[in-house]
Amino acid sequence: MTSTKSPNIPVVDFAGWKTESSRQQIAQDIVAACKKVGFVYIVNHSLPESMLDEAFSWSKLFFELPQEEKLKSAPSRRMGGSQRGKMDQLREVTDIKESYDIGSDENTTQPNQWLPEHSLPGFRDFMLRFYWECFRVGGEVLQALAVGLELDENHLLAKHSGHNNQLRLLHYPPIPAEAIETERAARCPAHTDWSSITLLFQDDCGGLEVEDAFLPGTFISATPIKNAIVMNVGDLLQRWSNDLLRSTSHRVTLPPLPDRFKGTDRMTRRRFSIPYFMSPDSDSVIECIPCVGEGAAKYEPITQADYNRMRASMQY
Description:
Layout: E1 11-13, H1 20-36, E2 39-43, H2 49-63, H3 67-70, E3 79-80, H4 86-91, E4 94-95, E5 98-102, H5 123-148, E6 166-172, H6 177-181, E7 185-186, E8 188-191, E9 197-202, E10 208-211, E11 219-221, E12 229-233, H7 235-240, E13 250-252, E14 261-262, E15 267-268, E16 271-278, E17 285-286, E18 302-303, H8 304-315
Parallel strand pairs: 1-2, 4-7
Antiparallel strand pairs: 2-12, 3-5, 5-6, 6-16, 8-13, 9-12, 9-16, 10-11, 10-13, 14-15, 17-18
Helix pairs in contact: 1-5, 2-5
């Protein structure tokens, strides 16, 4: 795996977050990246490497199950295959991937639909532990953002109990590269996230691209860095920050050369990634932070639940 970063996406070393002398600089660097790019690599965070490796191992085991076993989780809204956005329905472009979403077991509005334990023993137990470890680390990132914005460190985190977050296992199966090149199929079309922030863990396949902030319509590769978190600002945090922080469009397409194809038949490599979407509690009121952004508040206060309903009505 290459450790070369995109020249447009900053890398922030989080190792000194618990050290008072480094704390302010780390916070300022993360906020600067979120203002300019909306994406940042976070390295030397506190999520153990062994746990990340285990998360990808479980994800592969899940997606390698027979289809009839995987579909035992299908009654929930937390299992999906091909997904399409509004524009892609109009273009009839199939978004080819498998996904399995996991939330807090205490979230009764979107209950988890787990596989029977005998289908994949240990899967549920590990994924719940991983879910809450991601929340812990994501909480540190939210604190860093608050410090960098010169707010109380818990200003953002206070509205996140962790019960409204979403852990998503993603599998992009091999498909003919020609289908993507001719736009008959997509891996994941350009979009922004609705969340406060997203923490993304990706394998070494590549394919994630981020829109260049200075050249709209141009995308740059978010080259995988082993064990790094690719953190991005979501639409809700952009609104919350009065547009000071940037929610940037991103997509998944063909991996960069030389890792683009597997074999001589020009099939894409399969790809695994794990995003963790952090969202405020559904009844929390989000209003523009008065001391950040430029000028008067651009948005009226809104609850997270109402914001999601508004976005869903615009999407569908």
